Amino acid sequence: MRRLILLRHAKSDRPPGVSDLDRPLNARGQRDAPRVGAYLAAEDLRADAVVVSPALRTRQTWEGVQPALNGPQPEIVSSIYEAPETALLAVARGAPKAAASLLMIGHNPGLQDLALYLVGAGDKPGRKRLGYEFPTAAIAVIDFEADSWDALKAGSGRLERFVAPKDLEAE
User: How far is residue 48's CA from residue 36's CA, in Å, rounded to a whole number?
Assistant: First the structure.
């Protein structure tokens, strides 16, 4: 089995004169990233490999999540930045063979499009919600009955859960 955890970066700021690549997290993003990390750890949703967009907001999201997970060193992958689903799928298919689980931290609309492309079954309310939103710092956990990452294809995944920070506030 393979597990892909898609994490959209936490809420970012838009300071004047700062390039998109260098946009930092805002106060809400700085609060949400550790909360999501704590949730991932509490639910034992750990990754064997982590790939992160080079954008400052995605790297800061990982910095907020990582302490709770004690995860592996992330690989900064430039092709994740503002990428369409096809580029993100190529990154997932290139995950290390030894990794049973992969955490990808990136951007919308690519992450949402990738999740919609891959998910063919699973959590019905989550699938419906995923069809219209993928909020900042939200996670989609997708499981695959596959022996290799190369086997990921349209509809082959089962949405195990879809969780946004506001869902964690309700708990």
Answer: 17
Tell me: the pLDDT tens digits for 66-122?
999 887 899 999 999 999 999 999 999 999 999 999 999 999 999 999 999 999 999
H-state helical runs in 122-163: 124-130
- Tally Cβ neighbours within 10 Å of residue 19: 8
Q: pTM to 2 decimals?
A: 0.96
Two tokens at 74? Answer: 């992330």
SS3 call for 24: coil
The stretches of the chain forming alpha helices (DSSP H) are: 27-42, 56-69, 85-93, 110-118, 124-130, 165-170
Residue 57 has pLDDT above 70, yes or no: yes
CA distances to 71, 103, 155 from 37, rounded to whole Å, are 10, 12, 28
The CA–CA distances, whole Å, from 156 to 129, 134, 140 equal: 19, 20, 15
The percentage of residues in the chain with a pLDDT greater than 90, rounded to a whole number, is 95
Task: Work out the burial of residue 48: count CB atoms within 10 Å of its CB; fewer than 13 is exposed, 13-18 middle, 19 or more buried.
Answer: middle
